[in-house]
Model the fold of this input.
Amino acid sequence: MTPNAVADGGIEIHAAYDEPHAVTTQLVRAVAAIDGVSPSELDSLYDSVDPESVSKLLSHAGEHDCRLSIEFTYEGYTIAVSDSGRIHVRDGALPTERSGESSRE
Done:
């Protein structure tokens, strides 16, 4: 897994996974690699998103040939995960969080 700089100033990581549940493990490893720490030093992913729900949504999209993109914040990064196996990591919070609004209303 090699991080690549992209035009919007973020970092994109292309992750290939056979099982949708593997994407959550890979995104934690990716953030740890970007930060130069061990994955065990990061906060639990459950503090940001339910990994099982992400896996179920990705599985459902794959079974029904649907397009899917999920976006959330984790460890100060905005993470976008798509059904195509892409993980995009950007610095900063989601736009609604920057303006002081809650994204969980």
In short: The CA atoms of residues 50 and 80 lie 14 Å apart.
